[in-house]
Amino acid sequence: MADPPAPLDLAARLRSLTIARVGLGRVGAALPTRPMLDFQLAHARARDAVHAALPIGAIAIAGHAVIDVRSRAVDRTCYLHRPDLGRRLHPDDAALLPAGEPDLAIVVADGLSAVAVERHACALIAALLKRLPHWTVAPIVVARQARVAIGDEIGAALRAKIVVVLIGERPGLSSAESVGAYITWAPARGRRDNERNCVSNIHPPNGLDYANAADEIATLCRAARDAGRTGVLLKDFAGDRLPDAAPPR
Amino acid sequence: MSARHIDLAGTRHRFDGLAHVLAAATPLRSGDTLAGVAADSAEQRVAARWLLADLPLTTFLTEPIIPYETDEVTRLIVDTHDTAAFAPLASMTVGALREWLLADTTDGAAIAACARGITPEMAAAVSKLMRNQDLVAVARKIQVVTAFRDTIGLTGRLSVRLQPNHPTDDPTGIAASILDGLLMGAGDAVIGINPAGDSVARVATLLAMIDEIRDGLAIPTQSCVLTHVTNTIELVRRGAPVDLCFQSIAGTEATNRSFGIDLALLHEAQDATLGLARGTVGHDVMYFETGQGSCLSADAHHGVDQQTLECRAYAVARAYRPLLVNSVVGFIGPEYLYDGKQILRAALEDHFCGKLMGLPMGLDICHTNHAEADQDDMDTALTMLGVAGVSFIMGVPGADDIMLGYQSTSFHDALYARQVLGLRPAPEFEAWLAKVGLTDPAGRLSDTGGTALASQSIPALTALLG
After folding, report:
1. Which residues of B are less than 8 Å from A19 in CB distance?
2. Which positions in this protein are listed as binding adenosylcob(III)alamin (chain A) (predicted)?
3. What is the pLDDT of residues B247-297, one digit of tens each?
4. DSSP for B259-273, written as a single string
5. What is the pLDDT of residue A247?
6. Which of A41, A77, A173, A193 to mutate to test the interface with B (most CBs of B within 10 A)?
7. Is A82 in Cβ contact with B34 (below 8 Å)?
8. CA-CA-CA-CA torsion for B428, B434, B439, B440, nearest 10 degrees?
9. Chain A 127-166, residues with CB within 8 Å of chain B CB atoms
10. Position B264 in a domain
């Protein structure tokens, strides 16, 4: 057997095998200063992402109009306390949405990371639209202080067959910029989470890239149109054609 | 449901029923506000406590807060109430129970003897009359001891769940985190993985990998992959090395159904796991996780406050002789527990109420990035829970769970708590640490632990140790 590794070598080896914070060393029971500050930096970035606002004009797609709407959560503090209000469209903003009966509505929601959608949503939408060339698409709706279910009310107002909500996911320490995509057939208030399909962890270069994410979302949209449903029931209908479900959290 | 009122300083405070009194008496937290059951004002909150203080404990036996006919958790609570254990408390009010628990003349053994007589609603009620220091002082008296391959919960001990999660369940990455934790003296509560994927085949692979390490190094601890009980039943059937059976549980039948379980299924899973007879110093095989807010999250709270519902989950837990019960207190997010103050309060309540009801309580002292909390809040909660005698906490590399995306306590944090409070690992595990050279004769961690473990030949560790 080879000589056992010295402690420093072992720490380096462990670190090469996982992105977990292993082999950090210790001073007494505590962390050395550098890994302590590494953690604080990652946490600070995640905190900043939670509280960042999505700037007006940040979402722009050539050839597509953009409509800005609000949820009923008046600010971030309210949004964090009251998920129910983040799921509802502001009553004054429903009138902004034309009932054009499109095949597809796309909603960009700030969610828990405006930074994520600011960085990734435009490129993802462009990649998705390229994959659905003959579909009619509503103006892109940008929803602030919004949770996934706000897409139900928006999709219903637009009379869209399918709504895709692209939303900033809860920031983790390893990424504060991850987007999730939620696909819902026949959007209407009161849809349950098991009536949606989800593609999560979209954040190139470390997470899912735009091309693969757009492939998965487009596949789900086509399957939903064929089946006339999304969610658990879509999986039953078209199981082998669908991408693997996201792991449970 | 009988209405109640109390007159305080010229104001009459009315409450619709027992559930309303309990909810209004609860220290402020966002989940109760979201559910619409929180007190209307700070004064009403204290008025509810005045009213609660004078309520006889027997009230909770005659007025179920969720109907017996429609909820099997209520039926479990009522049908298994131990009147002999309750006898010493039978004439007390909630306020008198608080004073009895705190009295110098009441020791831990006396409290433990009453555990099966204390319903979850009684535990919740008395906790609402207690300050944080009361929750610490009483919990500290109570010793709840359980065992499988080592002994958890002895006074003066603090055990650690080694939580080596990985976003893709990569066995080498997980093994690296396990080794890192062992070198820091963690893992005596359980080596427990939350899998990213829930397939039975994947879980079986992980169970085999942990078992190889545990068996190869002769570690007196237990392993667990935290998957649904139906998966565990299937894994037992396939002959996988299942030590513990894990399940998330809650305090109402409807919430448990949303988790895909009922009480009968838990019994079936417990029996299957017991049948493997893998324990050495004991046969407590169940590992439960809970957390305030899960019933509201499942839209099945019946107008009851989240802390009372949490205690009802403990009534479920104690029907199955668990080795470990863990409240994952800050995981659910700020709409249930908004900030460090609310998380701390809930953590101390959960620990106290669980111990009062006779459970081996551990705490996942944790927060998400959208809660108003940081590591300073975790340090405060950890220190207070250590003083309170918490049975076990989590050990996550660097406090950063890279799979679940939240922050818990680290191997370092556990070491800190043991050092500043003079707490030691489970006795069998402590002896193992010394025997393999991970600690010196004084019980201090060695800096050359990797060398000690490298003399073993374990395939799962070969890539790590060279």
Report:
1. 167, 173, 402
2. 148, 169, 198
3. 999 999 999 999 999 999 999 999 999 999 999 999 999 999 999 999 998
4. TT--HHHHHHHHHHH
5. 37
6. A173
7. yes
8. 140
9. none
10. yes
When pLDDT is cut at 50, 70 and 90, the band that residue A248 belongs to is very low
Q: Do A21 and B198 touch (CB under 8 A)?
A: no
Q: CB contact, 8 Å: B466 with chain A?
A: yes
Residue of A nearest to B297 (CA): A83
Q: How far is CA A67 from CA A105, A115, A125, A163, A181, in A?
A: 12, 19, 15, 15, 19
String of DSSP letters for A79-141 = HHH-HHHHTSB-GGGGGGS-----SEEEEEE-TT-HHHHHHHHHHHHHHHHHH-TT--BPPEE
Q: How confident is the model at residue A244 (pLDDT cuts 50, 70, 90)?
A: very low
Percent of chain B's residues with pLDDT above 70: 98
Taking CB atoms and an 8 Å cut-off, how many pairs form between chains A and B?
146
Distances (CA, A) of A73 to A78, A88, A193: 6, 8, 20
B404 touches chain A (CB under 8 A): yes
How far is Cα B135 from Cα B352, in angstroms, rounded to an integer?
A: 6
- Domain-located, residue B224: yes
Distances (CA, A) of B54 to B6, B51, B98, B121: 10, 6, 11, 15
Distance from C-alpha of A239 to C-alpha of A223, rounded to nearest angstrom: 10
Inter-chain touch A170–B370, beta carbons under 8 Å? yes
3-state secondary structure of B59: helix
pLDDT averaged over chain B? 95
Which residue range(s) make up the domain with B320? 146-449
Q: Does B454 touch chain A (CB under 8 A)?
A: yes
CATH code of the domain in which B158 resides: 3.20.20.70
Smallest CA-to-CA distance from B403 within B216, B197, B213 is with: B197
Number of domains in chain B: 1
- Contact state of A20 with B448 under an 8 Å Cβ cutoff: no
Asked whether residue B320 is assigned to any structural domain, the reply reads: yes
Tens digit of pLDDT for each residue in A4-61?
667 668 899 999 999 999 999 999 999 999 999 999 999 999 999 999 999 999 999 9
Indicate whether B123 belongs to any domain.
no
Give the span between the Cα atoms of A95 and A89, in whole angstroms.
11
Q: How distant is the alpha carbon of residue B36 from its chain centre?
A: 26
Domains of chain A: 66-241 (3.40.50.11240)
What value does the mean pLDDT take over residues B193-219?
93
Residue of B nearest to A27 (CA): B412
